[in-house]
Structure to design on (139 residues):
């Protein structure tokens, strides 16, 4: 039986049954949709990998849907960044879009609704992933 076990409860449970069909690879980890739950786990081997995933997510979002990115980031922020001035949609102000994207390397957990430590995954999933997950992030 394939499973993911968290160190803390999520919706009253820590143990989630998962099949290989419930897993899909991302650039820095795996997305897992356990049976019998509406939760979707983003599993990462390290916090660094989680940060790289979130940074890449936002970079792709800006590139793939610039009109929506303008709505989310704000035209005023983008103009100020273009002028090399400090701006930003969050509490930290930076001087460019690249600097804003890089913030996600350290503040990756703010991208997710909840973050959990992974206690254990079944051996077959660890073999499939090619790593032992330490982080489960929920959107």
């Amino acid at each position: 039986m394939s499973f993911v076990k968290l160190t803390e409860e999520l919706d009253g449970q820590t143990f989630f049954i998962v099949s290989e069909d419930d897993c899909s690879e991302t650039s820095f980890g795996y997305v897992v949709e356990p049976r019998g739950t509406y939760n979707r786990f983003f599993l990462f081997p390290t916090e660094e990998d989680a940060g790289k995933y979130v940074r890449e997510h936002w970079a792709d979002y800006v590139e793939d849907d610039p009109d929506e990115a303008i709505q989310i980031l704000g035209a005023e922020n983008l103009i100020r960044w273009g002028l090399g001035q400090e701006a930003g949609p969050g509490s930290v102000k930076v001087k460019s879009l690249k600097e804003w994207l890089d913030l996600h390397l350290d503040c990756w957990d703010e991208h997710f609704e909840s973050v959990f430590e992974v206690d254990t995954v079944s051996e077959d999933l660890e073999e499939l992933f090619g790593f032992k997950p330490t982080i489960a992030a929920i959107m």
